[in-house]
Amino acid sequence: MELRYLEIFCKVVELKSFSKAASELFLTQPTISNHMKTLEDEAGIQLLDRLGRNVLPTKAGEILYGYAREIVKLKSNAVQELNKFMGSVKGSLIIGGSTIPGEYILPGYIAQFKKAHPDVVVTLRLGDTQDITDMVMDGSIEMGVIGSKADDRRIDCREFLKDELALVASAKHFKGIKNQIDMKDLKKLPFIMREKGSGSRRALEETFKKNGVNMDELNIAAEVGSTEAVKQSVRAGIGVSFLSLFAVKDEIPRKILRKISIQGFHVSRHFYIATDKARAISPICQSFIKTLARPL
Less crowded by CB within 10 Å, the N or C end of the chain? Predict the structure, then answer.
């Protein structure tokens, strides 16, 4: 079996698509299909099921993927170590970020990393905290930055940055809300919430629980799937919401949104660097994690 075919096979399994794999590998879809047909012929068994738009591994494919992933990883690490020995860092790094780290924090660190290592191609994948945790576990990303500590004990979580979730409202709408309110006032407000599975939602639920607040008693006006959608809904006056200060660092100074303090109530959390305990971290990923330890 050719190593290149195994690399393509891993990419197809991870992305569940011939077309997405072709795009990432800069190949045509027919080329991907032909290579996978050759691999299946060599293996003597069907490795992939074509189910509509999705491509999923068969039982035999799952067995091969487990070994192929390790082979591809070893090859990548070997190349990285040789480049390191020769005084250069080259290769690729695939990482993930939950909504706040992925959209507002990691791009700055990637820029800093690229200045030091211009020959490394960095791919950033986005999702909620659960999505990124799943990607770390299935090996489709090498590391992720997530908004709450992973429940899975197979994930190594290291504290990264501290974040504060603040209650924000439109400066144009909801002018009647005072700059500081009491806990009992929360039940009177219409809320925009993130979906379950997001780190922001989890941090909020935990803080509410500690303070004896039942989220079921809140007036949930809408539940949306991204921080940007929450922000735009708040700006439109649909409701108020708890948002990371990283996400509203431009809107509050410009008085598009305003921060509302709650007497005796504070929502904070940490972002975590998540890696798979069972997998060795590549030299390139180690270098990126060192970059995360430096302030921007």
Answer: C
